[in-house]
Write a structure and sequence with these properties.
70% of the residues lie in helices and 0% in strands. It is mostly helical. The longest helix is centred in the C-terminal third of the chain and has 37 residues. The relative contact order is 0.10.
Length: 387
């Protein structure tokens, strides 16, 4: 009567391995079935969402305030409660450049509005119908170039700009007592001429870029980018055509910011190699230096994101509450000062060297990284401005 009966052993439905928990230790499949009521699926989704949020809350505060803490935690094996280094760096990189892109667009648009006097007619300076037609054709040609480079979601804005240009041209022709303008996009291409970026090819009369050890197709590609960049820059500072100037500046900004995240991803393994060279006697693996580089850049992107957001918030609040604008300005300066101090303290905490040697290596690593970063950013500017 008092015999004990062995409970049945659960087996994994995927590989039939005996289970000792909620997950199979052989294939990793969960013991829970996916065939469940909808309210259970919603509960699981909320649990996963809160779990991710929990990792963010555990990751961002020490990343910002504790130099080297996340890296040492990762080396110690305590990784589950924190966001993975590469994912953390990449997400913060995208957010930082997105916010910075918005800030630059706001500044450029304000300057353009101040320079053109708000809603001033683009064709107000035209004295004859021919000048109106020429300016309209040039502006439509610039719009066609932009139309081929922007994503599909931005096309309605291009159409609205085109309609606005035609309305302004017709208003000016009416003032001059002439017939409405009917410049087509094809005519705009003809008037725009070979100086427009859309007509540029690497088969030009003069070649700017030629590197002897590069293949011919790479030289042609680089030369094409340089010609487009010069044409975009020339158009971006053309005072005779405000609409084309504004579109060229938007092309330059969008192109550069589209390339910057990839450029920073390239810089991270190079920075890890620098750390490997300067700390070669520490006998650390390259992967350890790579994790240091990822956390360092994640902090820099987080700091850049904070500086940009604080600056935008200060600009917004200053006209209404002047004291908040000044307070946010001091906070922005504090974040900027904290960036080099943080990186120095992080280097000291991770590599465990005396302060004099840490400062010397910090200076040399920073000097080498500055020139490497300048080179990579220069190439990124050429590629971005060549769109």
């Amino acid at each position: 009567m008092n015999e004990l009966t062995e409970a049945g052993t659960l087996h994994c439905a995927n590989c039939a391995t005996p289970l000792e928990g909620e997950f199979c230790h052989h294939c990793g499949q969960s013991v829970h079935s996916v065939l469940k009521p909808v309210h259970h699926m919603l509960e699981d989704g909320m649990d996963m969402f809160l779990h991710v949020d929990g990792r963010i809350f555990h990751t961002l505060p020490p990343l910002l305030t504790k130099p080297g803490f996340l890296t040492l935690e990762y080396f110690s094996g305590r990784r589950q409660r924190y966001v993975a280094p590469f994912r953390l760096m990449f997400v913060l990189c995208l957010l930082a450049f997105f916010a910075f892109h918005l800030a630059v667009d706001v500044v450029v648009n304000k300057r353009a509005t101040a320079r053109t006097g708000g809603g001033e007619n683009t064709f107000a300076q035209a004295r004859t119908a021919q000048e109106v037609q020429t300016k309209l054709a040039e502006s439509l040609g610039a719009l066609e170039v932009t139309r081929k480079t922007v994503p599909t979601v931005a096309l309605p804005g291009i159409d609205a700009a085109e309609n606005k240009l035609r309305e302004q041209a017709n208003m000016r022709l009416t003032e001059l007592g002439k017939a409405p303008a009917r410049a087509s996009s094809a005519a705009a291409d003809d008037v725009a001429g070979p100086d427009r970026p859309v007509h540029l090819t690497s088969k030009m009369d003069h070649q700017i870029v030629h590197v002897a050890w590069l293949p011919q197709f790479m030289n042609e590609r680089l030369d094409l980018y340089v010609h487009r960049m010069l044409a975009n820059i020339k158009e971006a500072f053309d005072d005779e055509n405000p609409e084309a100037r504004q579109l060229a500046r938007e092309r330059l900004i969008t192109g550069v910011f589209a390339v910057l995240p990839q450029a920073m991803v390239v810089m991270i393994p190079i920075f890890a190699l620098l750390l490997k060279l300067f700390y070669v006697f520490k006998r650390r693996l390259y992967m350890e230096h790579l994790i240091v580089a990822l956390h360092s850049h994640a902090f820099l992107f987080l700091a850049l994101l904070l500086v940009t957001v604080i600056g935008m918030l200060s600009t917004w609040l200053r006209p209404h509450l002047a004291w908040t604008g000044h307070a946010l300005g001091y906070l922005q300066g504090a974040v900027l000062l904290w960036m080099p101090v943080y990186l120095l303290a992080m280097q000291k905490r991770i590599y465990h060297q005396r302060w004099p040697m840490t400062v010397v290596k910090y200076w040399f690593v920073g000097w080498c990284y500055f020139w490497l970063l300048s080179t990579v950013l220069g190439l990124a500017l050429v590629l971005g401005a060549g769109h």
